[in-house]
Amino acid sequence: MEENLKKNFLKNSLKWTIICLLVGIFPGVSSAIFLLSLEFATKTRENNFWIIALLPIGGLLIGLLYHYYGKEVVKGNNLILEEYENPKKIIPLKMAPLVLIGTLLTHLFGGSAGREGTAVQMGGAISDQFTRIFKLNTSERKTILIIGISAGFASIFGTPLTGAIFALEVLYFSKINFKSVIPSFATAYIAYYTVEFLPVKHTHYHIPFVPEIDLIHFLWIIPCGILFGFAALAFSRTTHFWGKMFSKYISFPPLRPFIGGIVLAAIIFSFDVTKYIGLGVPTIVGAFENPSGNLDFLLKILFTGFTLGAGFKGGEVTPLFFVGATLGSALSAFVPLPIALLAGMGFVAVFSGATHTPIACTIMGIELFGIDCGIYVGIACLVAYFCSGSLGIYHSQIVKGPKYMLYERFRTKNLKNL
Known about the structure:
With 418 residues, the chain is mainly α. Helix 2 runs antiparallel to helix 4. Helix content is 71%, strand content 0%. The termini are far apart.
């Protein structure tokens, strides 16, 4: 009996070691290819401004691809969250190439989108194929979806600790098996080092000075965190609003990004707004050095919400970084904290509010900016989390815990007063 248990343990350990290696390497390589392709697409657009005129054609291509070949995977990240909560069938592998092509077309022609959604979808789709290969049960399949998210996130941003914790926290209230924790961390680091081994560079941010925390500084973090939470709320609501509007008034899905592309291209050619399209990484980096414009964060919310709501592909997280960093940078005109620190706080706090993941976002702040800013980003992330409402960027995400209870209590109280 004891010997059988030992054999089963060794067999299971070997199986999951192999799975973690495969899930770490394949999505890691996919993320590297994606990052290199995305860099090429961005440079091509920047060197050929006229290409933005083709944004409606790019949108139509994306719409047609998903309408005729990708109806099962059009939900994107939400499909992964739904499959975790209520497992039905293995995510089709075609999710990976479809979202890769869709995101590259979006960025090539001038849409405003991110990249995390693409990496997570590729990681989730690739990892889920091993469910069939290794004949995994329902509980084990949930673990493999977690490590797929972990691998995608860690490899795309170069933050393995954050990737592992994000994958666990974003699904936390969906009854996570603690057996998933070690595979999540292992896969995140494998994916991270896979990308590091390849000729891919991640963006680096720097906070040169972090003041000692005291009561005055603490009191300034609170209102900043509240504003970051409101920005996250605005971002989520805007994206969902445009998605509903396009669905309501345009019945044929491929026409939604086509018409959205016409509107975006017309605005881009009519006004000097190129800083709000694509990833916006130069603007994010600049926000750590010089005060951003007061409307930069708001315009990025509008451009990204419209782009994604119309049906273009990409992630939301890098635009959330843009929104948070520029809002924090703009607040430096009123808040007596270093501009880089405020930008860094906003960078992760808006992300925290929009994804309901304050722990992962605090870890990300420490990974990217250093341990010295830990208290500042931690408090900002927590406050933003509580102030960003019940709806995040992933409408299929289960939101419970302290924020959910406070929201329900507030809503019940208001209903009684009506």
